[in-house]
Design brief:
With 396 residues, the chain is an alpha/beta fold. The protein is built from nine helices and 16 strands. 35% of the residues lie in helices and 25% in strands. The longest helix is centred in the N-terminal third of the chain and has 25 residues.
Amino acid sequence: MLKDKIRQLAKAYHQDVIGIRRRIHEHPELSFQEVETGKLIAAKLAEYGIPYEHGMAGNGVVGLIEGRNGSDRVVALRADMDALPIEEANEVPYKSKNPGVMHACGHDVHTASLLGAARILNELRGEFDGTIKLIFQPGEELLPGGASIMIKEGVLEAPRPASIIGQHVHPPLAAGKVGMRAGQYMASADELYVTVKGRGGHGALPHDCIDPIVIAAHIITALQQVVSRNADPHTPSVVTFGYIASKGGATNIIPNEVRMEGTFRTMDETWRFRAHELMKKMAESIAEGMGGSCDFVIDVGYPVLANDEALTQKVRSCAEEYLGPENVVELPPRMTAEDFAYFSQQLPACFYRLGTGNPGKGITSPIHTNTFDIDEQCLELSIGLMAWLALKELEG
């Protein structure tokens, strides 16, 4: 059976994939700077005998595996490849050698997994019809996102996939399991840059000043009401400010200016842009009413990620067949964001979660932390499952 062949190859290539993952982990590169990572991917595809193009969106790599016959059925598999500006705290043999940069979001896992799946699929290309497009994407962690650039540069054309599948590490889920959710799954993500301007002076003489810190405090509090008093209660929305800094303030100095940076996230695209208008109007009105002014800039980011209902149901069924129903779990919506959402706007898409945690081994740290790591046993599952899903999708 084809499924048994995939399992055997996944087992045979497991250690090689671990080695690839560790090599990438040791040499992480920030968004749109993935020069060596791109070269490694290209070298591996060449080693496997898979034709590819290198350089899309800067460092992206796109490979093609053609089956035995000239079927026009095409499925795409996607992995991202960039790291984060985090100093790694793990003491492991494959610890990051690039100071201040770490694969803390598992993109090393995603890239190594897709390379492993590609090797399996290429080995089996005489046993399936159709074409598999391999998309190794740069710059997921930084706007405008590598996915949007690759789409503009034609990654979904010549040939055009009928669907696309991607995966992401998930530490809360044990290695050996995967999680899925059909429909709306991940939120949009917009960046908020707010500058509140007043008139500074002595902290003991606030009546001679226009205090931008007080104005900023009112704005932050009021913006929460944009969600609580305007959004549909059934539409998850989040407004968070994670950075506040004054320009020239001190214990006894009221500054002239306060800078704030935050994020707005929601699951509804229509409400998303209405909320932009409400937030901007509210902030500017508060500042003006208190004698100051406010520059409110919204950097529109990734859209809502929606998993195609029919495709996700098929992927779930195939995953249950490969792993057993007990190892495929239903996931709740997430307010985190992913630029895979751009792909989901273009064609039927499924983005699922790969379990990577193992409390028994002390592997429990969340993504985007300096102690994030994975149980590498998950790599055998990830490469086999991704290959299996691609072949089942090619069957139509």
